[in-house]
Amino acid sequence: MPELPEVETIKKQLAKKIVGKKLQGEKIKRGRRRAKLLIIDFEDGSSLLIHLKLTGQLIFEGEPSSYTRHIFKFDDGSRLIFNDARKFGWFKKAKNQKEVKKELSSFGPEALQLDLKPFKSLLRKRPGAKIKPLLMDQNFIAGIGNIYSDEILYWAKIHPLRRAKTLSDREIERIYQNIKKVLKKAVRYRGSSVKYYLDAFGKEGNFEKYHQVYQKEGEKCRRCGTKIKRVKLGGRSAHFCPKCQR
Q1: Burial category of 136 from C-beta neighbours within 10 Å (exposed 0-12, middle 13-18, buried 19 and up)
Q2: Among 93, 42, 214, which Cα is nearest to 144's?
Q3: What is the pLDDT of residues 153-171, one digit of tens each?
Q4: Active site residues
Q5: What is the pTM of this model?
Q6: How many CA atoms lie within 13 A of 69 on its CB side?
């Protein structure tokens, strides 16, 4: 947390508030997102990169708190509060686009921009990989994390421990279709506020109301009534319906 939908939400909201303003004397040209990174580009070619990691928040015109790690002050007196309870988040200035490109070089294709054929090709190159951690691997596909990998695989009816080589073409298509469907819907509802996430105006997202399996261990599957299970997976958890997801 936050994942693609949360960072995309913050990007869209901040773009309406900070583009054209000056930060430390440099005029802001645009805001954009790559994977889970927020990028603020300046007219002089430099950029500010911000990664919220687990508990980061960016609140426009927010009030400082004990979790505030930095305050970005704009030329017109407005400000952007960077909160981070667990202090894993970070920000850094890149002097030019060459430095930005180097910082972003390890990311795989964007989850919402990837076409089906390249997606199939990527999966075939990782035959032994389990599908949930593979979807979360930012070198493989950029933007998906723990929450949305659970939800995508639920809707695709795929068990999170299935290996890529066991997936049929039709199953791969279902995963691909639900990557688009789930992420787009999550962006529309301004992300999921399961713990620390707030949007750029300090409000909670609404997509957690539509979660089907994430953190719902022991609850009944809304599709078949079977109890949702959780399995440990490399230090993380995978939530799934044992009947719907074989």
Answers
A1: buried
A2: 214
A3: 999 999 999 999 999 999 9
A4: 2-3, 36, 236
A5: 0.96
A6: 17
